[in-house]
Amino acid sequence: MSEERILILVKPDGVMLGHIGEVITRLERKGYSIDALKVTTADADKLRRHYADLLEKPFFPEIEAYMYEGPIVAMIATGTNIISVFRRMAGATNPSEADFGTLRGDFGREWPDGLIRNVVHSSDSVDNAEKEIKIWFPELS
Ligand SMILES: Nc1ncnc2c1ncn2[C@@H]1O[C@H](COP(=O)(O)OP(=O)(O)OP(=O)(O)O)[C@@H](O)[C@H]1O
Q1: ipTM, 2 decimals?
Q2: For a Cys-Cys bond, which of 32, 66, 108, 119 suits 27, CB 3.0-4.6 Å?
Q3: What is the per-residue pLDDT for 141?
Q4: What is the pTM of this model?
Q5: Residue 110 near ligand 1, beta carbon < 6 Å
Q6: CATH code: domain of residue 19
């Protein structure tokens, strides 16, 4: 059990379809704090750093195109075990496989061409959270 912080992105589909409030509500209902929040946009440098592990994947151009579709809401949240708990709240990467009741299961969509629009990103480890906070909130580091 530990107090952790996490970087959460409401991706362009989540912003355009009006799910920012839902993400915030679910965090607050669970008693987590939101320490920073802003509307921002992706750029090539941020995406290459953020998705460094996926640069060689054949679907990386799809991820880039998806993340450029509109504004993104970035937030830093804190709480006990927030990293694993929020990833359960987000659900599986592919919205077709995500459980109902999760953000991706309720609001995400897999398109006929295989494109995944899955509403949110969240850090998967303490180290990655710190790395991602530097990418999306450089003014705080
Ligand atoms: N097979 C795929 N086809 C298309 N896009 C994909 C595929 N796998 C992953 N992605 C995209 O890349 C993102 C990062 O994939 P990753 O494997 O890190 O999943 P994740 O950790 O659940 O998602 P995220 O890092 O966004 O929280 C996914 O959220 C999705 O937008």
Answers
A1: 0.90
A2: 32
A3: 73
A4: 0.96
A5: no
A6: 3.30.70.141
Tell me the two tokens of residue 73: 């809401």
Question: Is 11 annotated as a binding-site member?
Answer: yes
**Sign of the dihedral defined by the CA atoms of residues 25, 89, 19, 63, in that order:** positive
Domain count for the chain: 1
Q: Note the pLDDT tens digit of each residue in 24-56.
A: 999 999 999 999 999 999 999 999 999 999 999
* Mutation pick for ligand 1 pocket among 56, 93, 107, 115 (CB with most ligand atoms within 8 Å): 93
Q: Whose CA is nearest to atom 19 of ligand 1?
A: 93
CB of 119 closer than 6 angstroms to any ligand 1 atom:
no
**Residue of 121, 124, 118 lying closest to 136 (CA atoms):** 121
CA 21 to ligand 1 centroid distance, Å: 22
Which residue among the candidates 83, 121, 132, 133 is catalytic per the annotation?
121
Please classify residue 65 by burial: count the beta carbons closer than 10 Å to its beta carbon, then call 0-12 exposed, 13-18 middle and 19+ buried: exposed
- For residue 115, the one-letter residue type is L
Contact between 3 and 78 under an 8 Å Cβ cutoff? The reply is yes
